[in-house]
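tool_log.txt
---
The assistant was asked to compare two proteins side by side. It first ran the structure predictor on the initial sequence, then on the second. Raw inputs and outputs are pasted verbatim so the downstream comparison step can read them without reformatting.
(1)
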Amino acid sequence: MVFLVRHGESEWNVAYKELGKDPGIRDAPLTETGHRQVAETAQRLRDEKHDLRRIVASPLTRALQTAHILAEALDLPVTVEPLVVEQIWFSCDEGTPRSELADAWPHLDFEHLDEYWWGPLTETEAQMLKRCARFRTLMAEAHDWPHVVVASHWAFIKGLTGNDTVNAGIVRFDPNAEPHKPDTALGEPGGGL
């Protein structure tokens, strides 16, 4: 199974819960709690002795930080994949330019990204579900898919599998299984806050 891991708690998550509206925090980083949540998830993956070989990460900061914690704990390489970003809707879903990401994460390869790699801040559910389908195909074609961890986001994981997940939660995913067909709208983006 592919292990889909939602990023840990971000500064945006905390502010949104307090304010009840978008707090305007662009590409929000993890909180201290978020770091601890991901470290616990890494320990769980290690304890369960899965034969993990690599991590695929969204290029949003909270997912890169999540991938970094997992990679250090599990001794795995990380590749960056923009298909697994959050549904682009709120300020936290506006990314950081490629050149700044490369400076902040010099050990990761961002060359395949455009400088401003994220899309418009009103990605529809249908557009996001198309990304889910492309990622499903990409994983199904990968020879090592049963050994992959993906650091991603609530709406992407929900669109791909139909499952909600909490911060730093794990959802198992078989890209060769019958695709999830949403029978109702996913709800407001960020609904897994």
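(2)
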Amino acid sequence: MVLLILAFLSIALMWIVENTKVSVKEDWYEEKMQASLLMQKCMKHLKDDEFANEIAIDNINDPNETGLVGQQFTEITSGRGSLPMKLSTTNPNFAAVVVQLFKDAGLEKGDEVAMCFTGSFPAVNIAVCSAIEVLQLKPLLITSVTSSSWGANDPEFTWLDMQHSLYDEQLIHFLPLACSIGGNEDLGKTLSNESRALAEIAIERNGIPYLNQNSLEGNIDKRMEIFNKNSKDEIKLFVNVGGGIASFGSNKNAATIHTGLSSEMKIKDIPDNKGVVYHMAQNDIPILNFLNQRILLTKYGLPIDPIPLPEVGEGILYRSPRYNILIVGIATVILCGLLIGIVYIDKKQNRLGNAILSDPERI
């Protein structure tokens, strides 16, 4: 009976401990909130001002009607993309992921960050830009204009147009230093002449210097030249968004470099000795890669393909449940006290059984 009562008391105390957890703010809570709210504001601006009369918004493949999910195939589509991943990254809380990773990389206010974007993940691009703004980092951005399926692949409204619109609205305070076509060999070789012309027109109408060295190796070297020329201090991190071939240098490299933060990338870990990542590794610059977004979504508890989009501030990036130390302490003291008391009483009651009795015949 005593053991049964003790078991019930233990279960009751465990229930109390589990149900009195407190919600604790995670590190950089305020910065994460600000970045996610800014991303949400950027998305709202594009939707209200740029996509308001846009009949091309696909409410089937873009059920949240963000406008950041393009078509499957257009004239400037450079390859295949994953629709669920494009949808999942339109969650404004993705900006909190970027803040977390920037802080994990040890970035502080004023640090220089070199970046290569494509048009494939416009929502991730916005998330990175939002984190840059909130943390007051110094961006050095080079982008390409083409996109994989379901990205910013409208030739009339590319990623360049989106960023320029956000820049004009003073939501983002920087523009790319240069822009290439992207796609095969970073020159759009698999595109038609007409498609390459549309990409060039997009670059020209946004007033961004056209990066075209007529070869992949030339475009990679030119990127490094631009980064070095515009760097005033020391580049502390390289950020890649999408599968830009100039970033990786080769598909083999892209398959090797994992998604997320690589704080100590070594050149021996890069199979083909080329690409912006190779040059950054040569200079011991950490690499933050946004390519396989599912890995990041799973790691940081963001939903896949959410409908509707979550509210800003939802998820383990902002708050996590922690045990109430006071309640845990009280429960531990009670349980230990009961155990000690029961052992003491048990020994006291059985003390007679341990006594040595004299032989009555010898008395």
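---
observation on (2): The radius of gyration is 29 Å. The mean pLDDT is 92.
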